[in-house]
Amino acid sequence: MAQKHDQLRGLFTDEYMRLSMELSETSWSRVLPWNGEEIIEAVALAAAHDFDGDLDAVLRRPSPDDPVRPSDPLDWETDLEPLVGMEPADEEERREQRELDERRRALFTSVLATADRPVPVTVADLATLLVDLGVLTHEVSSDARHRWRLAPVVPSPADVLPMPAEWVRQDQKLRRDAAAGPAVSALLSHFNVHAQEPLLTTMDRLSGECRYSPDQIRAGLLSLRDSGDIRTERRAAGNTFEPADLDALANHARVLVTVDWDHVTATRLTFQLTAPAAG
């Protein structure tokens, strides 16, 4: 995998990065075997470079010396070979990853059966399925030229397959957290300076101070709260405080934000050196 990414580096373009960002937001990596990501990556490169060719030619471009082939069987096993400078995975980590891989395979097989679709066996089978599901397009011109591309709007798995309700809930949370990422970083930086003690503020005020829209600030606060990094409260009767409903909270309404710096520094490496000192 590392060798392939070294070979890919020279093919990266702004258009490829844009396509990759769009694809990363669709959650297919949480459903497909590794070959599925390799197919989509190869087609994204073909689209970015306006390259035409059959599936074999498209798959060869990212790694000509060790290409994925249409006849290859599907590979569900996560590559745990360590990156340079990283410790290798121990047996417990490998066992847990094997269990996760098997669960992902069982999920994919199950939803395809529910959708009355055949389970792909080879890379070519999977590429055909991704075309049928509207993730990819495949056209053959009158002169027999093949053209593999990403669909103009790539659907998410839940748009085209009967994904379980729990998977959909987790996916929505992951999407929200990913979208909130920049606002989360801005909020933590702001709190690092201004919230060493509980901070009484509003979303409008945080929006101006962090330079993100109130909706982005709301998403960032929700992500931080759900991750256990902050507590958000509203003043109630009797001068006491109760948990704040951030979804319903008006942008101008005051909310008390309390940061759990022990939790932040234990789970977010970025702030291990910058969190306020105790006392």
Number of helical segments? 11
Strand order of the largest sheet: 3-6-4-5
Outline the low-pLDDT stretches.
Answer: 272-279
Arithmetic mean of pLDDT: 86
Distance between the termini: 47 Å
The assigned structural class equals alpha+beta
Major sheet description: 4 strands, antiparallel
Shape assignment: elongated
Write the layout of secondary structure elements.
Elements (H helix, E strand, L loop, with lengths): L1 H7 L5 H11 L9 H15 L6 H6 L30 H24 L8 H10 L3 E5 L5 E5 L6 H4 L4 H30 L4 E3 L1 H8 L3 H13 L3 E6 L5 E3 L11 E5 L1 H7 L12
Helix pairs in contact: 2-3, 8-10, 9-10
Describe the structure.
This protein has 11 helices and 6 strands. The chain has helices spanning 2-8, 14-24, 34-48, 55-60, 91-114, 123-132, 157-160, 165-194, 203-210, 214-226, 261-267; strands at 136-140, 146-150, 199-201, 230-235, 241-243, 255-259. The strands form 2 sheets. The protein has a 4-stranded antiparallel beta sheet. A two-stranded antiparallel ribbon has the order 1-2. α8 crosses α10. The chain is elongated, with a radius of gyration of 23 Å. Residues 272-279 have low confidence and may be disordered.
Please sum up the structure shown.
By secondary structure, the protein is α+β, with helices and mostly antiparallel strands. It is built from eleven helices and six strands.
